[in-house]
């Protein structure tokens, strides 16, 4: 019957289409694997010469008082750019580890509030340079929760660094709180803030807001994408509220128990 023939033909063309889509997906996956390996290989290859360059630039920079002003300035610039390059390589390697799915968290019981105190103390000098007063409000979050402390410290350092850098010297409030299922840390500034379009892109790799805001020596635009990767590896989340000219509020939420679902709105850290 004609209808059956048509159905069979249709079926065959559907199958062919499905095959072709599958092949394309496989090719794309291969391509992204090649890309991942390329990024990882290049970063590894650059590490060794860069270490030598850094040692040399450290030496030159240490002697800069003995140079004429122009050479001293060049030594200083070299030193800062080499440091920036090292940060970029470290971040790229980290990103390629996420892409390869090869990151293993090192879980240890950690007090988020104590961790926040440590990070704030370690960044006091930077805060002073920007005239920012960093306050910690920690009604909860002192009791230990399993987390990869090194990675969580890095997230908090990143959030606080951004708040200081974009905070226009206004106060910064760090809040740590917890409930039965989660602990959360919020970093809030009252500085430049971001437009809704900026907020959409803030976790994108290499993204940085409007060039006019950039310092001559700036970050890599990878900090927040790494922070989000770390939050997700913990089964947690990283959220942002921001308003142009009024400031930003980033909140990292971590489940108390590995793999436990986080309540939709566990803590009061919003808005
Ligand atoms: P980096 O700090 O290296 O530029 P991040 O990924 O940490 O990279 O941040 C990306 C961009 O998001 C920053 O360059 C900045 O434009 C914007 N941003 C991040 N935090 C804030 C903040 N607290 N206030 C305003 N803008 C911010």
From TrEMBL:
Biological source species: Microbacterium limosum
Localisation: Cell membrane
Primary gene name: mtrB
Residues of the full protein shown: 272 to 542 of 566
Top-rank taxon: Bacteria
The protein, known as: Sensor histidine kinase MtrB
Domain Histidine kinase: 41-258
């Amino acid at each position: 019957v004609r209808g059956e023939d048509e159905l069979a033909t249709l079926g065959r063309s559907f199958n062919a289409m499905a095959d072709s889509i599958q092949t394309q997906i496989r090719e794309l996956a291969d391509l992204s694997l090649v890309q991942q390996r390329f990024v990882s290989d290049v970063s590894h290859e650059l590490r060794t010469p860069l270490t030598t360059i850094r040692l040399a630039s450290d030496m030159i920079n240490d002697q800069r008082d003995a140079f004429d002003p122009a050479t001293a300035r060049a030594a200083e610039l070299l030193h800062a750019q080499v440091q920036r390059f090292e940060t970029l390589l470290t971040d790229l390697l980290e990103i390629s580890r996420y892409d390869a799915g090869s990151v293993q968290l090192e879980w240890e019981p950690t007090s988020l509030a104590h961790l926040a105190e440590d990070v704030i103390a370690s960044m006091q000098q930077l805060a002073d340079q920007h005239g920012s007063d960093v306050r910690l409000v920690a009604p909860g979050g002192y009791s230990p929760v399993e987390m990869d402390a090194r990675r969580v410290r890095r997230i908090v350092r990143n959030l606080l660094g951004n708040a200081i850098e974009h905070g226009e010297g206004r106060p910064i409030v760090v809040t740590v709180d917890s409930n039965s299922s989660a602990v959360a840390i919020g970093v809030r500034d009252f500085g430049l803030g971001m437009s809704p379009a900026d907020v959409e892109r803030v976790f994108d790799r290499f993204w940085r807001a409007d060039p006019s805001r950039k310092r001559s020596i700036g970050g890599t635009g990878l900090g927040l994408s790494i922070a989000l990767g770390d939050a997700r590896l913990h089964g947690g989340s990283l959220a942002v509220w921001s308003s142009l000219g009024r400031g930003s509020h980033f909140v990292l939420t971590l489940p108390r128990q590995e793999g436990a679902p986080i309540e939709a709105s566990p803590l009061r850290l919003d808005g």
